[in-house]
Each structure stands twice: as C-alpha cells, then as structure tokens.
Prior knowledge:
Helices cover 83% and strands 0% of the residues. It has helices spanning 9-35, 39-64, 67-88, 98-118, 122-138, 140-162. The chain is globular and about 60 Å long.
Amino acid sequence: xxxxxxxxxxxxVPILVLAIIFFTLASFLGTIYTAYKKSKNILKSxxxxxxxxxxxxxxxxxxxxxxxxxxxxxxxxxxLFIYRYFDSRQFMRLNIDSKDLITSSIIFLLMTVNIxxxxxxxxxxxxxxxxxxxxxIINKKYCMLVAxxxxxxxxxxxxxxxx
Length: 163
C-alpha cells in the first residue's frame, strides 16, 4: 500500500507512539505549572528535555542512523515526564501508580520490539493482540472507569436527543 521509500517507517512509528504517550503525560503535568502560574518551570523542563534530545542525536546518529531521532525523542519525553512529575509535587500531591505505569510501558515496548522484529505479519498481529489483552487486564480498573464515563456521556446524549 505504501511506496518503497516509506517501508522503513514501520520501525519508527512504534517508538514514536511510545514517545507520544510520555509526551502526553508530561503535558498533563505541565498544566499544573500553568494552574500555579509557574511558566518558568515549563520552560526549564522543556529546554532540558530538548537538550537531552539534541545530545542523544549528536552522540548516536552517526552510529545508528535515523532510528536515533525516534529513540532520542522517546528518551527526552520520558525525562520530561519524570522531571515534571517530581517537580510538580511541590505544588500538589500526585499519586501515580508507578507499578502500573512501568508495566504498561514495558508492554508497549514489547509491542514496539515485536513490530520491529516481525514487521507487519500475522505473528506481529497475534503477539500484539495478546499483549494488548494483557494490558487491558492489568489496567482493568482504569478501563472500567473510562467505560463508565463514556456510557454516562452516551446516555446523557440519548436523553437530550429524545426530548
């Protein structure tokens, strides 16, 4: 379905998806800074994260090529999340279940490695489906909260449209 010039992209996308998850978590924590009018903390953490990204690129790109850009983005966003998590605790108490976060991250990492090894194949699909089911089981309580929230929203819309 895609041209030959894009065939290597399958190796980059899973790493970038994992990076986006950590970027989203870091952005969520960034809203704490905004709420407490601490934009300097946003700037500081973002600059440090960007410098880490650049340093990893400069250090590893000559040896490993373009994949390093994805990896450095992941490393810098993981750092950004961890930094903001500990730094924002001075403004509010945060309870993040680190066991669930680490377990979920490992599952996504395994999915990424699986795609890198098997590319787009039936094996990849089956292994990632099993990993996704394990993810859902581990995060059952969070999935149930999201499902309940969505059901309430859907039911409210039905009530409003019936009137």
